[in-house]
């Protein structure tokens, strides 16, 4: 049976109403963990609302998994407090926190059928056989797996196994579900499809989800808010839009959208914006900032926010060096005259210039964020 769109093509899900709104808030304050004197997580604090989808995003070793494992109860923090709703769970064993988990490895029991795997957490809780059958049927239907209950995990595709793992986490209605790179082992097409399905289930049931990934695109698709982590700390915890439009550090600007950074010196402030004299020539208008005139700055602007214009009309003039078609988009690299590195643009394919062309570059002041040169 083809997996594509199994859940999205369906009508309202049976029994979704009985599970709806099961999410609870979660808070962490001052979380810290060191391993043999090396700080893995430091000063991590956050308030997550009931029904929110929050992602920890960061590169390898930034402390995402350690933070999630402290919330789960598998790693003991050196300091800090974790609350689920109003309840302090910091010193509780994992199984007493009532949280659900979905990890990259499916961790299904190979000798049990799909239905038995999903029933397992309910059996631990002592539900009657009839009630277990009913609830297992309900989540199987929700995950588009009706008819698969008697199979064993090895008779399923990777995507189906990951759905079973999701069912097993959902079935006992945990107030918060923790997911650590659950789609990391799947190919891109399946990952995209399951992202949509996870998001749909989360929204429909009002679940609180904390999700770990190093893939910024996945984080942007799924999350209400993203905590961008670096060196064990949260650089910024905000909505995807705020992270894009108001990155607080150069690291966030770069991590989210591979920003262009142009160095220069702050020239002057006006009431609404700030003028920057770029090192390679030209004046760029940025949103207003408090740095003093003369201050060295890096101006960050996302590739999708740089436009083309006639050579003399932009904040600088340059030569088109690279033009790469990516579906309906074209990625263009322009080398400003006198500059060492390229400015990257993303344009609709119909507006592609040709290599060698002389162009001007434009950007709205509101899309240009300044950082003091030493930051990031
Ligand atoms: N059990 C452990 N013993 C010693 N050091 C550890 C242990 N677990 C994690 N660390 C260290 O703590 C830091 C944070 O690791 P963590 O696994 O939380 O990062 P991460 O952001 O989840 O990375 P990845 O994406 O690679 O999983 C790393 O420097 C790591 O080497």
Automatic annotation (TrEMBL):
Residues 15-27 have a biased composition (Low complexity). GO terms for molecular function: ATP binding. InterPro entries: AAA+_ATPase, ABC_SmlMolc_Importer, ABC_transporter-like_ATP-bd, ABC_transporter-like_CS, Mo/tungstate-bd_C_term_dom, P-loop_NTPase, Transp-assoc_OB_typ2. Keywords: ATP-binding, Nucleotide-binding, Transport. Residues 1-27 are annotated as: Disordered. It comes from the Bacteria. SMART domains: AAA. Residues 26-256 form the ABC transporter domain. Transmembrane segments: none annotated. PROSITE patterns: ABC_TRANSPORTER_1, ABC_TRANSPORTER_2. PANTHER family: SPERMIDINE/PUTRESCINE IMPORT ATP-BINDING PROTEIN POTA (PTHR42781), SPERMIDINE_PUTRESCINE IMPORT ATP-BINDING PROTEIN POTA (PTHR42781:SF4). This is ABC transporter ATP-binding protein.
